[in-house]
Design brief:
The chain contains three helices and three strands. With 101 residues, the chain is of the alpha+beta class. The protein is globular and about 40 Å long.
């Protein structure tokens, strides 16, 4: 089966929706997300579909619109993760949890 660009965009939207729901459900001000999950939600345009690379700029813009700051968390990476560390989401002061669809 050939995967089209449209299908890949749909998959990324599904990953983003899941991330948005998880962040909204998380009551705290600080949460970690694994790199592979974020790379599926925000794949870099030229990265391979099987192992996408994270478009950090797009993730940062998306998170900012939802009241979060994002920062790599290399101190939380283990083993092979050190090349693609988790990302820490930090709720911006005054931001409230919100659900957007």
């Amino acid at each position: 089966m050939q995967v089209t660009h449209s299908t890949a965009r749909h998959d990324a939207r599904a990953w983003r929706t899941a991330l948005d729901r998880a962040l909204s459900a998380h009551g705290g001000a600080d949460v970690l997300a694994r790199y592979p999950h974020l790379a599926n939600a925000f794949p870099a345009p030229s990265s391979p579909r099987q192992q996408p690379l994270l478009d950090y700029r797009e993730l940062k813009a998306w998170a900012t619109r939802r009241g979060w700051q994002v920062r790599p968390a290399p101190e939380r990476a283990a083993g092979e993760e050190r090349h693609h560390p988790p990302v820490r989401f930090i709720r911006r002061p005054g931001a409230t949890a919100r659900h957007s669809h």
